[in-house]
Amino acid sequence: MRHATAVSLHGIAFATSSSTIKTALFQSAHHHHHHHHQVITNPHPRLTTRRGNATVVVMGSSTDPSTSSSSSLTTNDDDHRHHMNSGSSSGGSRILPPHILSRIEKFASARGGGDALFGYVERCHVNRSSSSSSSSRSSHDGDRDDHGDAPSSSSSSTVAAEEEEEDASHRHCFGDVLDAGTGSHSLRWMASVLHRDGLMESIRATGGDAPSSDYAAAVVPRVSMRSYTAITADENMRRRVYDEARELDISDRGEIIMGNWTDETLLRGRYYDTILVDYLIGAIDGFSPYFQDMALSRLGEHLAPGGRMYVIGLQPVPDNVTGDANVFCKITRVRDACILLAGHRCYREYPLDWIERHIRMAGLDVIETKTYPIRYDHATMVRQINVGRSKLKFFPSRGIAREMGAVLDGLERESLEVTSEREGGRITLGFDYVVVAEKPRANKEEGTTVGGGGGEGEGWMKR
Questions:
Q1: Low complexity bias: where (predicted)?
Q2: How many beta carbons lie within 10 A of that of residue 444, not counting itself?
Q3: Is the dihedral of CA 259, 264, 268, 271 positive or negative?
Q4: pLDDT tens, residue by residue, 285-301
Q5: CA-to-CA distance for 161 and 159, rounded, in angstroms?
Q6: What is the pLDDT of residues 362-373, one digit of tens each?
Q7: How far apart are CA 256 and CA 242, in angstroms?
């Protein structure tokens, strides 16, 4: 699982409003994927526009927008929404090439080694839509009883089965998705959703363990999404993820908007069926401090009535614990000290109860919550130690850097001793969490509808 073994570099999800975007990259003990910068694309040539302090970049050609001709088309921010392609170049079921399959197959793993947090997000979505469908079917069944028996021919049954399968695919659609602080990991998850049919077909075709492949195909949700919008602030990360979006063959399904959530004009008038907040709150302090208490309310403005927000985060690592796991607490403290001595800002994680409290303050309902204990191995801890080492060159004096380097070396030895004595070579400390929030539907008398006139699940984006 993501939280079990890996740690990775994060980009900052919030940028200044100035023309020069400050690049600030941090690493954090719980983030097992690149985060908070991302590329999103469209099937049309490059479109750029300015709206307030946000720069909208829509990509779909094979050319990186940063290297495109200066004569690229400039258009109104609202106009280019009409170009969003509801289809996909990867639509339909097909065997995925190895370079795509290797990056996204973990999201379709039904057994160990998969991504537990995003797996939970998918199950919550499927359970919700299935429950709604059951209620709808019960109502329709009652109506049918009033009008006589339904046709019972085999052809009618076949048609009904096909309609049921199509309906299931529709019910399990995330709709229009906003990735509020996007990075490589969330991009890959979205790719796994956009390629879900091909992904499952590829697992069947290439799985060496046939029973496991059949099992995965039977239990992994057949989810989908219509489009995605991702927010990023760092140009270097934008380029990295832009390249990955092309390599994952999802460059025709969304857009990237470079901007700052403190900018009130960002995404003004746009609404989404699903909002993903993937380790975003903890990253804010590294770039845009003191905005955390407003972030969920700000994002909630763009959630359609009846839409869902999935908040993924890390319970803060305590200052001290009893037992061997305390070595990671010490590593975290020293790592953060190195970041501060280098003149950089640390991440600041927020506890589960803080998140739930601010979700409710934003006018959303907390539907359910799940926690996942984190297990750290030696390699995971060394990666955090290396974050501290990477900051030594920025210290104000070589003497301080030398002494701190010795402290980091000692922590590496201690972490090896501790993990080598534990079964499985891991210690357990803290947890990741997923909070499922939902925006209440407006009263009918207020005239507000979900789906932009297309009904539930059809998207809710103002043009």
A1: 61-75, 150-160
A2: 8
A3: positive
A4: 877 889 999 999 999 99
A5: 5
A6: 999 999 999 999
A7: 9
Domain positions in the chain are: 2-137+162-316+352-377+429-442
Q: What is the CATH number that goes with domain 2-137+162-316+352-377+429-442?
A: 3.40.50.150
Residues with Cβ within 8 Å of 292's Cβ and at least 6 positions away in sequence, in order, are 281, 284, 285, 348, 350
Letter for the amino acid at 308? R
Which residue type occupies 356?
E
* Helix 184-194 vs helix 235-247: crossing angle, to nearest 10: 30
Find residue 228's DSSP bridge partners. 177, 254
The pair of structure tokens assigned to 22 is 């400050």
Task: Give pTM, 2 decimals.
Answer: 0.74
Rounded Cα distance between 118 and 229, Å, is 18
Of the candidates 339, 337, 425, which has an alpha carbon nearest to the alpha carbon of residue 380?
425
